[in-house]
Amino acid sequence: MAKKIQKIQDLVEKIKNNPSDLAFVIFSAPISKVQDQDLLQSPFPIPTDKKCIKIKIRPSTTTSSYKEQIFFAEFFTEKQTFHRKINVDELAELIIQTGGIWFKSIALRFRMNSASVQELVTVLSNKKGQVRIIYSTEKKSEHLEKNSFAEFKNKNYILQEGKIVPFLVRLGIMTQDGTVVNSKRDKFKQVNKFLEFVADILPELKKLSGGFSKERPLKIIDFGCGKSYLTFALHFYFSEINNLPVEIIGLDMKEEVILECERLATSLSLKGITFIKGDIAQYANSQKEKKSLPPDLMVSLHACDTATDYAIEYAIKQGCLAILSVPCCQHEANSQLEYKSCKKEFKPLLKHGLIKERFASLVTDALRVEILEQQGYSVQVLEFIDMSHTPKNILIRAVRSLKEKKQKNPSELAKELGLDLTLNSLVNH
User: pLDDT for 62-78, tens place per residue?
Assistant: First the structure.
């Protein structure tokens, strides 16, 4: 193993030049002299008075250019974990500010051109504040690597490697010959996993709708579409694979995102796909006076906090046949849960901040499921993608049932916990 000492700035430039090569970063061994106030006043504020003892950073599965590369950052205190998305420049600044100042050790792993070799980089500081960087290489088991790649190649994905998918090529997930880009395999698997969930309910969509035709196309609304990987995937799956007429609307609040999606759709000559700038409430109000058919399928991935509730409410009141929702950042319940006022049975769940946060997220989604069932939906709770990629991995899949709706009855669990959540208010009032 070769060792080489360089300045932190050199390491930062390496990350900036090839951000997609970075597999993970771990900041550890906090320096005791760092005060809480130093953390609170940093460009990466941690909303707690407890000292940050570790930071873990990994790349998002989102494919993007240098300026758009996103990383997931986890800030650990003794009892809590805080999540934040950061870009390449913020990561670089974090390394510069913390190396030898906040933490004694920063470990990084880079992917190399060879799939069986990875580069390990360790930033170390001594008691005098002197910093050095150690570079080394690590060779994986060729047997394991080959088997892993073969498994990926042979898996029966809906979108298969080797078969050119135009939107995947344009989004940088595939090359022109249909080969999946190595750094984009996680995104490729995520898109396919999502389509598997859709494929499972397609027979029910056809049955509930009476079938789709040019006069009666399959209508889909995607709330918070973002860069629209899944929006384009849905269009391709229904129109190209299943030969069904489809009309899809992607909604997002960021104008630059909408413009980029429109350019991509135009360049691919796609019909039946539209992108609109706005929020869910604005869109819902604009549809009240229109006589067009409501959506058959509502999709909402990582709509933050109560935005998920507004999306689900819209789907329920519009009578959507199916709902696919991946909730995110369930802060509302967490803010309402009180340790002092709760019943003794729940106190162990609210005693520690980290456990309380996770409990609140689970309670929020459990109550969403209950409300959907009350409104006449058959509901499944599924793991969307592996926890190693994102902790926000619960997918709620709801399909309208032919059974009568249950009587509106406030949840006993919500009562016991003293919760008054947005979705219950929207649907039952």
Answer: 444 444 678 888 887 77
Strand partners, 219: 247
Q: Using alpha carbons, list the distances in angstroms from residue 278 to 188, 251, 257, 272.
A: 28, 6, 11, 19
Distance CA 28, CA 164 (A): 43
Mean pLDDT, range 215-228, rounded to an integer: 91
Q: How many residues does the chain have?
A: 429
Q: Tell me which residue range forms the domain holding 35.
A: 8-142
Strands 218-223 and 246-252: parallel
pLDDT of residue 32: 63
pLDDT at 204 over 60: yes
Residue 159 lies in a domain: no
Distances (CA, A) of 197 to 323, 328, 376, 381, 417: 11, 19, 20, 11, 33
| Residues 57/71, Cβ–Cβ less than 8 Å | yes
Amino acid at 94: L
Residue 302: CB partners within 8 Å, gap ≥ 6?
A: 224, 326, 327, 328, 392
Ranked by mean pLDDT, which of 107-121, 180-194, 197-211, 350-364 comes out on top? 197-211
Q: What tokens does 192 get? A: 């396919």
At how many degrees (to 10) do helices 255-267 and 229-236 cross? 30
Does this model's pTM top 0.70? My answer is: no
Asked if residue 149 belongs to a domain, the reply is no
pLDDT in tens, 96-140: 877 777 788 898 888 765 555 678 888 887 766 677 888 887 665
Structure tokens at 340: 């002092």
Could you give the CA distance from residue 375 to residue 360 in angstroms, rounded to a whole number?
23
Strands (DSSP E) along 278-341, which ranges? 297-304, 322-328
Residue 352 inside a domain? The answer is yes
Contact yes or no for 324/198 (Cβ under 8 A): yes
What is the CATH classification number for the domain harbouring 267?
Answer: 3.40.50.150
Provide the β-strand partners of residue 108. Answer: 25, 121
Q: Please, which residues have CB within 8 angstroms of residue 44's CB and are 6 or more apart in sequence?
A: 73, 75, 84, 86, 90, 94
- Total domains in the chain come to 2
Q: Looking at residue 214, what is its pLDDT? A: 92
